[in-house]
Structures are given as C-alpha cells and as structure tokens.
# Entry
Amino acid sequence: MARSKPNIIIITIPLRPIPTDFPPMGSLSVITALKKAGFNNTELYDIDFLRPSFSEVLDYIENKKPDILGISAVVSTAYDYTKRLSLEIKKRLPKTTILMGGNLGASAEIVLKKTGVDYICTSEGERTAVDFVNCWLTANSKGDFKNVKGLAFLDRTNEIFVTPFQDPIEGEKVYDIDWSLIEDDEKIDFFFPPSHLAPVISSSFSLDPRILDSHRREKRVASLAASKGCVARCTFCHRWDKGIRYIPVPILMERLDTLIEKYNVGYVNFSDENFGTDRKWLAHFIAEIAKRDILWRVSGMRVNTINPEAIKKMKEAGCCCIYYGMESGSQKILDVMEKVTKVEQNYNAVKWMAENNIYTIVQLIIGMPGETEETIEETCKFTSYFVEQSPKTDPNALSINFAQALPGTPLYEIARRKGNIGLTLEGEEKYLVQISNRDARDGETYLNFTEYPRLLLEKWNFDIQNRTRHAYVKKWGMENYYKVILNSSRFKDFSEEREGNEVTDSGYFSDPARQNENAILKVSLPRPQASSDSADSSNVMKENIQFEAEKIPSLWSLLRQKSIGSLATLYPHFFWHFKSLTMIFVFCNSVRKYGFIFSLKLVLDYISWKLVPQSKSKENKSIPKYISLRKILKKKLIPDIESDNPRMAVLRKGR
# Structure
C-alpha cells in the first residue's frame, strides 16, 4: 500500500523569530504538482507558520509516519534546524525517506554526510519531486535514482553523486498553486490579511491616497508571483534557477481574478526578483491589470529596465510602490557585484520615482571585496541625492546590509580562498552552523571582505544614515523631517505599544544598524506577523518608545528607555554636529548589541590597524579590485582549492 500510495509530508522550517505574511509558494507549488501527478496523500506541515515547539514537531511527524518527508530549506541559514530535525526523524522513523529542497542544497556534500537527509533536490521541485516519487515506488537501492534529474545523494561508496539538472518548467506552469491547500480560516486570514491589519499596507501603500477609497476598506492583501528567476547573476546572490520565465499575462490575470473573486483581494504584492524586464510582457501586463482596479507593488525591479513612461503607466494602473536592487552608489562595487548596471541608472530610478510620487527605498549591501572609504563616500552621495528629490521621501528608508557569504555564490568561494571559511567539510559546516537562524542584519556573523577593521564597517553603516538624514534636513528642513518620520510605519502606530501589545523583532532581512526595532503585531491576526516587505528596513520595524502628548522624546528620555536606535533618527542635528564622536557612539552601540568583550576585540583590532597599517591582510590585497568576483574565479586570478571534491563543482558555481 505504501508503495502505491505513499504518505508524503512537505514541511517548511522556521526562518525568523516570527513568520511573515509571505506564503510558502515553493512548497505549495511542489504539493500541487504531486497531487496533479496522482499522489493525493500529500500534505503541508507549515512549521514556519504554526511555530510549534521542536518536540511537538517530532511528535507530529512520528505520529504521521510519512514514507517520504520533504524539507523545504529555502535559505542556507536553515542548516542547523535541518540537521537537528532530520537526525531525530531518522532515529524515530528509520524507514522514512528524507528529501530536502531549497538553496541549502548548494552545500549538498555537507548536508548528505552530516545530517539525516537522504536526497537533495538541486532543481525545481515541481518536476524533480514527481520524478523522485515515481522512482521511489519501484526503487530497490539508491542506484535506481541515478536517472532522476535534479538530485544529489551519496552512492554506495559514500561519495556524492549529482545528476544533471532538470529542464526549467514552462512559464505557464510557474507557481501553479492550488490555494485551497491553505484555505482554513487561520491561514487565509494570515496569508491574505485584511488590509487594515496587514503590516505591508502601512509600509508600502500608505502614501498613496487611493487606499482611502471607500470600496477598498474590506479588501485583503495577497502575494503573487508574475515570474521566476532573474536575468542577472549578482556575485553575492544564490541563484538556484537558471534564467527567467514570465508567466503569460492571460494566465497571470486568471490567477489574479481567482484571488479577487474567492478571497476579496484588492491589494497585491508581486514578489518577483526581476519584474518587467521583458518590456513587451510589461506593456501587456499594465494594460490588463489596469482593468481590475486593484492597488499593487513590485518587490524587485532592475534599474536598467525602467523608464519614466513605464513608471507613469504603472502608477496609472494601480502601482503604489517599486523596489529596486540598487546595492551601491559606487560603480566600482557594482562591477564587483556583477550587477551589469550603471550607477547613473540608480540615480535616474530614484529621480523618476520621486517625479511620479511612487514610494521606494534604497537597498544597499556594504562590505564587498574592494569596499573602501572612497566607495562608501560615493554611496553617501547617492543616498543624499535620493532624499533630495522629494520632501515626502523618508530619509530613514534605507536597507543597509553587510555582504553575506552564501554557498553557491562567488562571494562564498572568495571567502573560502581567503581562509574565512574552513576548507574541510567540518570547517564549512562550522560556518553554516554559525550563520544558522541568523539574518543579514546580524552584525556578529558577517565576514569582513575589506582591508579595514570591522569597527570601521559598523561606522560606515552609521555614516551613510547620518549623511542621508543631514542631506534631507539641509534641503527640506526639520519641520518636514519630523512630519515624514512620525508618519512612517516605524513610529506612527506608537500608541499600540503604549496599550501593552507584545512586540517581537521580526529579524527580516534588514539593516544591522537598527536597534531593537520591532515588528508591528496585529493582535486580530491568527498570530504575530512581520511584513514580507524585506527590502525596507523601516517598514514595520519600530521601537517600543514612549511619546508624551505626541512630542519628540528628549535625549535623556530615550537614554532612560534604552532606545538607542531612535537617538540618531530623532536628533539628526545633534549627531551631525558631533559626527567627530561617531566612533564612540558606534562602540557603545556595539556593546549593546554584541556585548563588551566582543566590542573590546573590535576596538583593539581597530587600534592595531591604525597604528600598524602594514597589518592589513595581504590576502585581501591579492584579490584584483573592481572586476566581477566570478571573473576572478573563472580566470583563476586566485588559486583554486585543490582539496575540493570535483563532483561538487557544478553546485558551487550556482546557476
């Protein structure tokens, strides 16, 4: 019976302290594909949403006794939980086959040899999962899976075996999701929340007056994908899918109409990484969505694919917000990242957004190889230009992240060659454990790829924010400054905190310099929710500070409340005039975040660097500057690692 009708459970795992409103699209797509293939005894156990204890998870899976357990490990920071869970399941259910999918698969050899995972899906799960289960029905040994594309597993000799990648699925089949899989009231209210409860509304839509239209009051918010993949191959970004596929507009509109009619959706977050690069597709999309009277935002668009005419038409068709992966204000760093964009295009994008009064923020990644005081200065000039375009621009709407080395990226391979990550399986696993259950705002776990001490990197982060605030105040004045920030989602609902609602840090992809800022928790939702507004460091992040009569708290009041992060935000003049003392503030803030001992080490490292400049890493100097990291690896401008398993090469490259 098990062989003909296998019991399959697909699980998500907790990625951050609290779940976001973004549904598990990958898992839902795989389950939909399996059910269409006839494997109806397949269910979703959404641990990320439910947040049961670890023992409850184990008991649930043990009671269900799945024949196949699918683990969705969408990010490399999921390693520790995946290891613990898979090893415990193997103890309790040794006959259960464990298949893992997601970006953690770039570390396939470590996962297969150090955890309880039996097989890894290295391609799109919709096809690989179906082929895998069909093979499982008759398989007698692992060798029978060698003809299944998109797999990695250990052969009889305990060596990794990687099969060829699956062909990409067609555009019309991308994210073909049966939403009834999450149709119980609790999940629908969470993933399609009413607009007045959804954190994403206050962060991305609130500046558009159209949200005040009376017929939108009862509408819900949904996330929908219009494409899959990206045209770029940024050297810090783990690409698991090859190329990009756009869902044909008629099919996309059919899916949108279903959400509108079935769930009363009136707001849509298009979650694409690379929206609208195909200009013919974009024109068709704009024409069709304009017929539906919904408001929508774009989570990811490239600055080299947009123009003023397109932005204007998008707004007329209901677009309230567009985010771009700008990353830096320095062309040198953009080249290291292989963004294939020009810094002038960054400038154009923010200018055109202001001219059309569409909300955006600036996303930055600092600390890439080659980052210097000069490139940070160029970035400061860019962020200053950003806030000078309109008095409505929030000067705190910056998402500043330190470069993170993720497996399957050139940046990760550079880190290994520099010795920042161990070369053995044990050394790499140590790094994966170190970054597990963390996010890009965590200053303790990022690697320093520059020739400067880490304390200076922390200062660069603050300098960018300080310069940006000063530029806004200089251009638009303090009255406008306070008006903008107090109307931002970070502060405008401060009364909720005074009423005693619990606040918890969402930990969602953001600015490591934000201090104790907390997610808006809507108590009417099934559980605490952070916004999927991952690009916006000011989105739903707030501090639990006390305002008296809606007046700006004094410096001493903020210090008493330990609201360090709000000091610089609420008193930009003070921090600009005393910018010579910034390093002291950075140190004090570091103590608060990381503890005294860790911060003292940062200071000693900084003093050593100042006194003995020759102590700068020779390894850093050996890396050619200002060309793509991928080219450095491809041309072998730094030595390869001879001990690497050649069978892992295809996964280490990414796609």
